[in-house]
Amino acid sequence: MAKKTYIKAITEGIDIALAEDPKTLVFGEDVGKNGGVFRATNGLQKKYGADRVFSTPLAESGILGMSIGLAVTGWRPVPEIQFSGFIFEALDSIVAQMSRIRFQYNGTKNAPITIRTPYGGGTHTAELHGDDFENFFVGVPGLRVVTPSSAYDAKGLIISAIENNDPVVFLENLRLYRSVKGEVPDDKYTVPLDKANVVQEGKDVTIIAYGGEVSEAQKAVKKLAKDNISAEIIDLRSLYPLDTDTIFASIKKTHHVVIVQEAQKQAGVGAQVASAISEGAIMYLDAPVSRVAAPNSVYPFPQAENVWLPTANDIEEAARDTVNY
Amino acid sequence: MAEAKAVDFAKIKAEEGAAFAKPVQILDNDGKVVNKDLMANFTDDQLVDLMKKMVWERALHEQTMSFSQQGRLGFYAPTWGEEASEMGTVSAFKKQDFMFPAYRDLPQLIQHGATVAQMYLWSKGHVKGNLFDARALRPQIIIGAQMVEMAGAALGIKKNKERDTVAFAYTGEGGSSQGDTYEGMNFAGAFQSPAVFIIQNNGWAISYPRKKQTHAETIAQKGVAAGIPAVQVDGMDVLACYEVAKEAREFAAAGNGPVLIETLTYRFGAHSSAGDDPSRYRTKEEEKPWFDKDPLIRLRKYLTDKGLWSEDEEKKYADECKDDFKKAMKEADAVEPEKVTDMLKRTFEVPTPDIKEQIKKYEAKESK
């Protein structure tokens, strides 16, 4: 088994999906010959032909609207939105159209569409190239929202997402594309779409994170261990639906919880996790739910990014406060 | 001496719409044939069939408005005045073609395979209104969304190598202002997909008039920007609408790429049955010439002169249609209301854990 980058794992997953189902189509801005601006689809057009892997005109609503028409004529679209900040151009196609198709046709039609898009900050890109908008999609019935934090999960989750018959928003953390490497089998395997992952077991505090914050949590846990604080890390992987069973089982053990998200604190995934805990596991807590998140400003210009983004130090501090409450 | 001009923008502006300014017409307002060659394409049976379809649509409108006034329906967008545009165009398509209607296009959807009872269920907001036996999506509410979706279906049809098949979509001139309409045309043009875009220019987007909708002289010329051929047709002339749609379909189905059709029609009544009052925003003087162009009048005159039709026959047929619509309403009324439990079950192929819990809760609530 070779060590591969997060982005290479995604490419391999798409490659397997294209090889297994001739109805799978990969398209979006620059994804064809260029292999995508991040090279996530590198080499796929050469391998599967321009009929199945192709670049489109520059229009996000056109790309995702077209996905719906392709889906209802029997295809399995895997469109790419070049940066998640551009996705609002296509919000109608996602929120008002594809998420409702199964509902509207009583399950007689479906929309097996996997929308891939990079998200997340810390790469000093231009405005609207590194934002965190997962909050919007977790509030939409009919959509699954997934984000891997490791190379292994990236491959297994993208295959599951493409094979799923419901629309999936597949969020790829920009910072992790080339910074994360891991053991990734060459062959096909899947990671389930609605299961959280216990990244590291511990007994004193549960740190719940996802995407780019999982690696920050891992750094924090190492520091905590020096003071004999044993932290458990849960990577949500699935932002909708939430795997509350895994979350509650951990809290029953540790009695303390820190929820970490890179996105702004207002509303969002962390708030939903906190709410689920208050409904289902509050009696097991020895301290209030603690949250680490970005402040409620618009995503900052690159120069302020490193202060704005939640770091391992923020997580460590929150974990200590919670344990010592 | 006048300064030389690099470019005469005023001239360009004045001439932009010229290529589209002569709408295709076969019968004029008085039922006189203005294009003998095209008229020769029709058999007597076809002419009577198109007349019957328009009478059917007008009867559908009248009976449905009556149901609406009785409070027996939900959302309904009247089609009075648009019979030629709607029946003429839809009659040119085949069963295998994929239709993307908007909310005012229930009559075409019925002609394409849905039943009247199903459309009443759609109006009432019941899922069974969407489960029709026609290659079509449900009537679209977001006017423009169907244009990008249809472009995708047209590409899907092309990739499936389906022969003699196109995708076609309807919107109004208001929908032509939506970015998605351009994106749909541009994508279909770029991929040379078998798509037919039909924009029914009925003069008004609720209270906003066509002249203010766009400064373009015609809606048809918007096809130029997408590189697709376009045409204006007299939308009150069912024969012209049929012939143009037939040509468009054949052109697209033969692999020549998409076509845009602008039908010049008029909404005689309100935007919807939900309280819109056209007298707030338009005058009788504006309406009068359009009523004179009533699509039923001209074909009725032509057919009556030929001895192929009579007012008595028309009334009898309209009454028969209305009886059918009353039966359809009874059928729709007899359908049990939906359960929230069922809605939860169909949100995902396999319900998520949170939805499974909610299903249990609503099963208990709805079994009481």
From TrEMBL, chain A:
<dbReference type="InterPro" id="IPR005475">
    <property type="entry name" value="Transketolase-like_Pyr-bd"/>
</dbReference>
<dbReference type="InterPro" id="IPR029061">
    <property type="entry name" value="THDP-binding"/>
</dbReference>
<feature type="domain" description="Transketolase-like pyrimidine-binding">
    <location>
        <begin position="4"/>
        <end position="179"/>
    </location>
</feature>
<dbReference type="InterPro" id="IPR009014">
    <property type="entry name" value="Transketo_C/PFOR_II"/>
</dbReference>
<keyword id="KW-0670">Pyruvate</keyword>
<dbReference type="Pfam" id="PF02779">
    <property type="entry name" value="Transket_pyr"/>
</dbReference>
<dbReference type="GO" id="GO:0004739">
    <property type="term" value="F:pyruvate dehydrogenase (acetyl-transferring) activity"/>
</dbReference>
<dbReference type="InterPro" id="IPR033248">
    <property type="entry name" value="Transketolase_C"/>
</dbReference>
<protein>
    <submittedName>
        <fullName>Pyruvate dehydrogenase e1 component beta subunit</fullName>
        <ecNumber>1.2.4.1</ecNumber>
    </submittedName>
</protein>
<keyword id="KW-0560">Oxidoreductase</keyword>
<dbReference type="Pfam" id="PF02780">
    <property type="entry name" value="Transketolase_C"/>
</dbReference>
<keyword id="KW-0786">Thiamine pyrophosphate</keyword>
UniProtKB/TrEMBL annotation, chain B:
<comment type="subunit">
    <text>Heterodimer of an alpha and a beta chain.</text>
</comment>
<keyword id="KW-0670">Pyruvate</keyword>
<dbReference type="GO" id="GO:0004739">
    <property type="term" value="F:pyruvate dehydrogenase (acetyl-transferring) activity"/>
</dbReference>
<dbReference type="Pfam" id="PF00676">
    <property type="entry name" value="E1_dh"/>
</dbReference>
<dbReference type="GO" id="GO:0009083">
    <property type="term" value="P:branched-chain amino acid catabolic process"/>
</dbReference>
<dbReference type="InterPro" id="IPR017596">
    <property type="entry name" value="PdhA/BkdA"/>
</dbReference>
<protein>
    <recommendedName>
        <fullName>Pyruvate dehydrogenase E1 component subunit alpha</fullName>
        <ecNumber>1.2.4.1</ecNumber>
    </recommendedName>
</protein>
<dbReference type="InterPro" id="IPR001017">
    <property type="entry name" value="DH_E1"/>
</dbReference>
<keyword id="KW-0560">Oxidoreductase</keyword>
<dbReference type="InterPro" id="IPR050771">
    <property type="entry name" value="Alpha-ketoacid_DH_E1_comp"/>
</dbReference>
<feature type="domain" description="Dehydrogenase E1 component">
    <location>
        <begin position="51"/>
        <end position="336"/>
    </location>
</feature>
<dbReference type="InterPro" id="IPR029061">
    <property type="entry name" value="THDP-binding"/>
</dbReference>
<keyword id="KW-0786">Thiamine pyrophosphate</keyword>
<comment type="function">
    <text>The pyruvate dehydrogenase complex catalyzes the overall conversion of pyruvate to acetyl-CoA and CO(2). It contains multiple copies of three enzymatic components: pyruvate dehydrogenase (E1), dihydrolipoamide acetyltransferase (E2) and lipoamide dehydrogenase (E3).</text>
</comment>
